[in-house]
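Feature request, filed as a ticket because there's no other form

It would be nice if the structure record came with a short human-readable summary line next to the tokens. Right now we just get the raw output. Example of a typical job, pasted below so the devs can see what we mean:
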Amino acid sequence: MVNLANSIKQHHLDAEIVTVISSRAQVAGVERARKLGHQPHIIRVKDHPDTATFSSAITAVLDQANVDLVLQCGWLCLWNIHKNYENRVMNIHPALLPAFGGRGMWGHNVHEAVLAAGCKLSGCTVHFVTNEYDAGPIIIQRSCQVRDDDTPDTLADRVFQQECIAYPHAVRLFAQNRLAVRDGRVYTRPADD
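Raw output as currently delivered:
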């Protein structure tokens, strides 16, 4: 979120953060949002009897803010995406999907798994979100080398550098109406000259 806000502030990204939602009150992202001048909506899973009402509460906030694109930045909860937001919710994952994705595969869990598998490349994936963990159509992937002396922390740092490039790029493509989803794949239209 901070990376995207900085891209907007530096005029590298023609966008506006209109609302922030967190599923937890006590996370760094809430404080970061406040420092950026936003008052986050806290919508916790445990405050709702089921996924449907949790998802409806999220959708209501998005509708109220007239959101064009939802960006999951550190979001870890599965929510049912309303059909009005199909191909309008993006996530960034710290691995090259479809490898090292799915339930429980986030943060250091991913980097530890990449290292344990002996991978020589890692990176990040920006994808449209579906109602299944890390299964949506891939928009952009960026890679980095896995070094023999890597730890989860050192690998995470290099992957994060790629994330800071990939996420704003994906948002820019969306804002320019250059992304099309057909048969579960994302196609990027050429830029208008």
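Something like this underneath would help us a lot:
The chain has one domain: 2-188.
DSSP finds five helices and eight strands in the chain.
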